C-alpha cells in the first residue's frame, strides 16, 4: 500500500511558510524584544496575584503600560519593536485554536443545561457589542472604529483576527478588549450585589461572555464553578462572534 505524502508535505510547507517573516529578522534584537515582553508580563502577573488580583492591575494592563512607556522613553521605533515580537503575533493563531480545549472540557455542562446556558451567552454577547457600536455610530465615528467596537467582548486573539476580517483595526481592537475586560471585572461584583444574583452559574456566564479573559480570571477568584461557567461563556461567545461577524460584514 502506497501512502500519498504530498498533502502532508504541503501542509508542513504552509506551516513553515507562516513563520517566514521570522527568518528576515535580526535574531539578537528579536530575542531581546521577546524576552523583555515576556519578562514584563510575568512580573505583572506576580504583582497582580500579590495585590489580590485587583482587576485594575491586570497583567495585560500593567505590561501594556510598562512596554508603552519604555517605547516612549527609549530610542526604539514602534514598527521596529513590532517586527521584533513577530513570533508572538504568529502565535495568536494557535492560541485561538487552543480555545477548543476549555470548550471541550465544558461539553458535559453544555449538554446537560442546553439552551439555559446557550441563550444567556448569545443574548449577552449580542447586546454588549451592539450598545457599544450604537454609541460610536450616534457620534458619527469612522466606519473602521464602528467595526472595531463590535469585537469588544471577545478574547484578544479572536478580536484582532475578526476585526481585521470585517474592516476594523486589529491593534485598536486589542486595546478596547483589554479595557472592556477591566471595566467588566471591576464593576461586576457591584452589579451582582445590586441585582442580588446568587447563582454562580449566572455570575460566571456574565463575566465570561462580556468581560472575556479578565472576567474569567475574576470568576475564578469567586469559585471554581463560577470560573468554569465563565470559561464556557468566554469560549462560546468568542467562537460565535468570530464566525458570525465576518459572515455579516466581510
Q: How can the largest sheet be summarized?
A: none
Helicity range: over 70%
- The count of helical stretches stands at 15
Shape: globular
Domain module count: 2
Report on this model:
The longest helix has 26 residues, at 170-195. This protein starts with 5 loop residues before the first helix and ends with a helix. It is mainly α. Helices cover 81% and strands 0% of the residues. It has 2 domains: 6-90, no CATH class; 100-249, no CATH class. It contains 15 helices and no strands. The radius of gyration is 20 Å and the shape is globular.
Q: Topology of this structure?
A:
Blueprint (H helix, E strand, L loop, with lengths): L5 H13 L1 H4 L3 H24 L8 H15 L4 H7 L1 H5 L1 H6 L2 H6 L1 H7 L1 H24 L4 H7 L6 H10 L4 H26 L4 H23 L1 H26 L1
Keywords:
mainly alpha, single chain, 250 residues, 0% strand
Summarize the structure.
The protein has helices spanning 6-18, 20-23, 27-50, 59-73, 78-84, 86-90, 92-97, 100-105, 107-113, 115-138, 143-149, 156-165, 170-195, 200-222, 224-249. The protein is mainly alpha-helical and 250 residues long. It folds into two domains: 6-90, no CATH class; 100-249, no CATH class.
Amino acid at each position: 500500500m502506497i501512502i500519498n505524502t504530498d498533502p502532508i508535505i504541503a501542509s508542513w510547507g504552509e506551516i513553515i511558510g507562516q513563520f517566514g517573516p521570522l527568518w528576515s529578522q535580526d535574531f539578537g534584537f528579536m530575542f531581546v524584544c521577546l524576552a523583555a515582553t515576556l519578562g514584563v508580563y510575568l512580573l505583572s502577573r506576580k504583582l497582580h496575584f500579590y495585590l489580590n488580583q485587583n482587576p485594575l492591575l491586570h497583567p495585560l494592563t500593567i505590561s501594556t503600560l510598562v512596554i508603552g512607556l519604555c517605547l516612549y522613553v527609549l530610542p526604539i521605533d514602534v514598527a521596529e519593536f513590532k517586527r521584533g515580537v513577530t513570533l508572538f503575533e504568529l502565535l495568536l493563531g494557535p492560541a485561538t485554536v487552543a480555545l477548543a480545549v476549555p470548550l471541550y472540557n465544558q461539553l458535559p455542562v453544555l449538554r446537560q443545561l442546553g439552551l439555559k446556558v446557550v441563550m444567556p451567552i448569545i443574548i449577552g454577547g449580542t447586546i454588549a457589542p451592539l450598545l457599544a457600536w450604537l454609541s460610536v455610530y450616534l457620534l458619527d465615528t469612522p466606519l473602521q472604529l464602528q467595526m472595531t467596537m463590535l469585537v469588544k467582548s471577545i478574547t484578544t486573539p479572536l478580536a484582532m483576527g475578526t476585526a481585521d476580517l470585517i474592516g476594523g483595526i486589529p491593534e485598536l481592537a486589542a486595546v478596547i478588549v483589554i479595557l472592556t475586560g477591566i471595566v467588566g471585572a471591576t464593576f461586576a461584583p457591584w452589579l451582582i450585589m445590586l441585582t442580588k444574583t446568587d447563582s454562580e452559574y449566572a455570575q460566571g456566564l456574565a463575566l465570561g461572555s462580556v468581560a472575556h479573559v479578565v472576567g474569567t480570571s475574576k470568576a475564578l477568584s469567586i469559585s471554581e464553578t463560577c470560573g468554569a461557567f465563565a470559561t464556557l461563556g468566554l469560549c462560546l461567545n468568542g467562537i460565535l462572534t468570530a464566525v458570525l461577524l465576518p459572515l455579516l460584514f466581510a
